[in-house]
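Predicting holo structure, flavin-adenine dinucleotide bound.
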Amino acid sequence: MPAVPPRLALTTDPKTVIVVGAGMSGLVAALELERAGHHVQIVEARQRIGGRVHTQRARDGAPMAEAGAGRIPRSHRWTWDYIEQMGLATRPLYPTGLNNVALIDGKRWVIDATTDLSTTVDLPPDEKALGFAGLVNTHLLENVEKLLAAEVIDTPAWPPSTLAHLDRLNIIDHLATQGLSQAAIKLLTLGAFPTSISPLMLSRVLATYDRESLAVIEGGNDRLPAAVAARLRGPILLSSPVRAVTQFADRIEIAIERAGQRTMMSADAVICTIPYSILNKVQFEPALSPAKQQILAGFRYTKATKVAFKMSARFWEAEQLSGFAQLDTGAEIWSPRWSSDDGSGILQLYQQGERAAEMDAMDEAARAQWAMESIEKVFPGAGGHVQASASYSWQDDPWAGGAYGIPQPGDLFRWQGNIASSEGRIYFAGEHTSEYSAWIEGAVRSGHRAATELQKATF
Ligand SMILES: Cc1cc2nc3c(=O)[nH]c(=O)nc-3n(C[C@H](O)[C@H](O)[C@H](O)COP(=O)(O)OP(=O)(O)OC[C@H]3O[C@@H](n4cnc5c(N)ncnc54)[C@H](O)[C@@H]3O)c2cc1C
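Done. Tokens:
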């Protein structure tokens, strides 16, 4: 796999293409196809582009918080390449020189260079002897080393059959079978941690994740989809959900709903980026293959809700705190706009798992109160500084149906070759079809891959 996205050659056989979805995968697919000389239209269900790259903004347009993608590791090279192509400025996610906090069993710990997290819980003697760094090395990083040694990342040899045994259980159950205590498991899975991930998928994420170089796009991460969209020549039809897709020998037709009316559109091919969590709401004629239908029935999306608070002061900095924290409740606290000039700031609760779904039944005020109760445990007194709040539930979002689609244990091998495979004139893209699922990187790479496949089609 090349380090940066290669350009498609100019086509001698221009095709008409409908891209369904104006998230990062659809936008990249459209950009690359247009650059190669094809004619592209995008249809998008929402009133906005960007999909799960969604910056929540104040009334004056100033970015407040990222409801979706919040950080971009420098090691995600294809995403960075598009950021650079678009001429966008970035800045580090984390402030330097300040400390994070951990909340474990209701107790608050400031994490500085001297903190060994293993002292925060009651561990058996052998685990205590390892210390937190030793636990991480033995139980997480050794698998990363094995994966790196297999040299399969970004190659057709992924997923590696030699490491299939690391894809049988979720990480929590896997660590338990290694004899690790519940307290140690809790330490190793602190924060907004997708607990259904297998050790193999987790190792892949860690192997391609550079925690030291996390960045955000100046002015909001939604500037990236906006910049790509601005480069496109073809139209982007907003508020146009696709309801049906019908394939014929010589063309493909889609039915979209606009202002209560069904409208038909026709093209040579379709790139479909609709998340698999909701794709079964679209009617396909002929039906999708049994393999794809099995995947749609089995794909589980992670639940995530974020609640952001605009704070009158970044009072935590007086205590040398960064505003970032990891909780043992499947949550993290982020302080994404820490560098504002007037001393104000943001605290955002990023809650994953079933607790995120608990908030779905609540109204906005109740959600804010629920989230602030968690934040108060880490940053006491925070409630007194709140000026405004905004929440976002991805499982409640009808055009997402969940936060992201990381394959569950066993799925990688069970579904191998079918997750992303094209069906007739339909090409599938989206983070869920990529090895970098749950990242912009996955969306970008999948959009490029689908465009490349379509370019090679002979119909
Ligand atoms: C809470 C959260 C945190 C995240 N954190 C990070 C992070 O820190 N860093 C990172 O890199 N990534 C992160 N991600 C992942 C990243 O946001 C996604 O991987 C990426 O944005 C997905 O892009 P996509 O094009 O595959 O899908 P989407 O962005 O979902 O695009 C699909 C589009 O299809 C549209 N659509 C759906 N149904 C229809 C229909 N029937 N007709 C027409 N259009 C339809 C949708 O409205 C949507 O716009 C996060 C995501 C979430 C939710």
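The mean pLDDT is 95.
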